[in-house]
Write a structure and sequence with these properties.
Layout: H1 2-14, E1 27-29, E2 43-49, E3 52-57, H2 58-61, H3 67-76, H4 84-93, H5 98-110, E4 119-120, H6 126-132, E5 135-139, E6 142-143, E7 149-151, E8 159-163, E9 165-168, E10 178-183, E11 186-189, E12 194-196, E13 217-224, E14 227-230, E15 233-235, E16 240-245, E17 248-253, E18 256-258, E19 281-284, E20 286-297, E21 303-305, E22 308-319, E23 324-329, E24 336-348, E25 352-359, E26 364-379, E27 382-390, E28 403-417, E29 422-427, E30 433-444, E31 450-451, E32 457-458
Parallel strand pairs: 4-5, 5-8, 6-9, 7-10, 8-11, 9-12, 10-13, 11-14, 12-15, 13-16, 14-17, 15-18, 16-19, 17-20, 18-20, 19-21, 20-22, 21-23, 22-24, 23-25, 24-26, 25-27, 26-28, 27-29, 28-30, 29-31, 30-32
Antiparallel strand pairs: 1-3, 2-3
Helix pairs in contact: 4-5
Bound molecules: 2-acetamido-2-deoxy-beta-D-glucopyranose (5 copies).
One 2-acetamido-2-deoxy-beta-D-glucopyranose binds next to strand 26.
Length: 463
């Protein structure tokens, strides 16, 4: 360890230009980071959060510190004064010491061009921050009523860090509360941070089916390039949580979506859970998406994919909702979904484990979908559900065949349904299901299983 360290130092002293440097917007530090900690000429290493430091163009970090920016930052961090020269030398001489790197880069963060608020503590600062900063900290922001937190046009390569508690005032309107968009963007939650949608102010047991006018989605995401959402803790969203539409190349990891407060009835919900239609992730017209290592506690679909391709959902814990779903498919602007994998996940206390629902009388395609290694427990309606008679407000009971379902794999799906539930329910339209491979599917505890289509291969027995 120390030997390598010495060699590194010598290299730095002898030929600094040869040593690997991170490119502008590249990573240069963070917990467990073993890559370069120096930045390309014209950029400096800025700590975005304990897990991620990034090379930010120096133009953004030229010290022209004003009294206001200095005092703002000094309340949240301990080091504030130092010059660019000090920063540079401290980075070079103490490469392996995270503490020093942190304090040196803190300095850089404080020194945005005058008039530019890269730390957003009031909604009025959002537009200038998104227009000019590639490193934005949303710090204890209280979003006022009739306002969307508009991060929809982030500059390419921007990192947004949520720290402290982000809150939203009530408005009876149907407008998203947070819009996020951009290319190569990184959205992270600082340790201990919470994004609280104040759902209690809207919840009336009716979700998007009636009652108070509500934001249909809490957060919209349209991210491209290579984008990352990490470690966000989100709670109490009004109706659906994420609407991911038109995204590509995005990884979502380490999120907690906790709507458990919406399980209890309230004065307006007539004995029903106060929160309703509270999907965790709604995905449409999206490609190359990975959602992983995420917990969703809610009252509707954990993940619902209605169109798009090459989507992987893994290492999920889904608690209290409607399971890992494809659909409902049909009657929308895009009705084709292919190459979706749900794997290595737990679905508990939920209406369904794995399901596909296609809308009655519509057209579309559902191709090459796999669920594998799913552990279910306390399922209250269907362990596995494939139904082609769906209508919001109640299935018709008569399947239609306009949506073609081809290539469904269920493998190693095990666990328990509650008594009164059905382990399996398959209701295909005439000729519209083909190539089902069900291997090692064993859900027990329910009764009255019903399947009008027998998987083409595997060892599945419906009853
Ligand atoms: C850093 O490594 C430790 C030990 O392997 C691990 O527990 C921790 O989660 C890692 N941190 C990150 C941010 O990956
Ligand atoms: C959000 O901000 C962007 C600029 O960052 C602007 O172009 C867009 O019109 C704003 N959206 C709304 C709904 O105001
Ligand atoms: C599918 O998406 C993953 C990211 O989740 C990506 O790494 C992979 O290259 C994509 N595959 C294709 C065929 O585009
Ligand atoms: C089973 O799940 C339901 C929600 O569907 C929940 O109300 C109930 O408490 C759960 N039962 C157990 C034993 O966890
Ligand atoms: C089956 O899935 C469970 C998770 O539900 C996993 O722990 C187990 O290893 C899987 N078994 C095989 C043979 O892959």
């Amino acid at each position: 360890m120390s030997k390598t360290f010495t060699v590194l130092l010598v290299l730095v002293a002898v030929a600094p230009s040869v040593l690997a440097q991170s490119p502008i917007f590249g990573q240069c530090g963070g917990e467990n980071w073993t890559g370069p900690t120096t930045c390309a000429v014209g950029s400096a290493c800025v700590v975005q959060n304990p897990f991620f430091s990034q090379c930010v163009p120096s133009a953004v970090t030229t010290p022209t510190t004003t009294a206001t920016t200095t005092s703002k930052t000094s309340s949240s961090t301990s080091t504030t004064k130092s010059s660019t020269t000090t920063t540079k030398s401290s980075t070079t001489t103490t490469k392996s010491t995270t503490t020093t790197t942190k304090s040196s880069t803190t300095t850089t963060t404080t020194s945005a061009p005058s008039g530019t608020a890269c730390t957003v503590t009031a909604i009025a600062q959002v537009s200038s921050a998104t227009a000019s900063c590639t490193s934005i900290v949303i710090s204890n922001l209280a979003v006022p009523s009739s306002t969307t937190l508009n991060l929809s046009k982030l500059k390419t390569g921007t990192t947004v860090t949520f720290e402290g508690k982000t809150t939203f005032a009530f408005t009876d309107w149907d407008s998203d509360l947070i819009d996020i968009g951009g290319e190569d963007i990184t959205i992270v939650g600082a340790p201990g941070s919470i994004i609280d949608g104040n759902g209690q102010a809207w919840w009336d047991g009716q979700g998007s089916n009636g009652g108070v006018t509500k934001p249909d989605h809490f957060i919209t995401l349209k991210s491209t390039g290579t984008s990352l959402l990490q470690n966000l803790h989100i709670q109490n969203w009004p109706v659906h949580c994420f609407d991911i539409t038109g995204s590509s190349g995005t990884t979502i990891t380490g999120l907690t979506l906790d709507n458990s407060a919406g399980n209890a009835p309230n004065a307006a919900s007539g004995g029903l859970p106060a929160a309703h239609n509270s999907d965790g992730f709604d995905v449409s017209s999206t490609t190359n998406l990975l959602i992983t290592s995420t917990t969703v506690i809610n009252q509707d679909d954990c993940v619902a994919v209605t169109s798009g391709s090459n989507i992987t959902v893994s290492n999920m814990v889904c608690d209290g909702g409607h399971g890992l779903s494809i659909g409902s498919i049909g009657g929308k602007s895009n009705n084709d979904v292919s190459d979706v994998l749900f794997t290595n996940s737990v679905v508990k206390n939920s209406q369904n484990g794995a399901r596909i629902k296609t809308n009655s009388g519509t057209t579309g395609t559902v191709t090459n979908i796999e669920w594998s290694n799913i552990q279910v427990s306390n399922i209250s309606i269907y362990g596995i559900d494939i139904q082609q008679d769906y209508l919001n407000g109640g299935p018709t009971g008569t399947p239609t065949n306009g949506v073609i379902i081809n290539g469904i794999t269920m493998s190693n799906i095990t666990g328990t349904a509650a008594s009164g539930a059905q382990n399996y329910f398959i209701l295909c339209g005439s000729g519209s299901c083909s190539n089902f491979d069900f291997v090692n599917v064993a859900i027990t505890g329910g009764s009255d299983d019903s399947c009008n289509f027998t998987p083409t291969s595997g060892n599945f027995k419906c009853t």
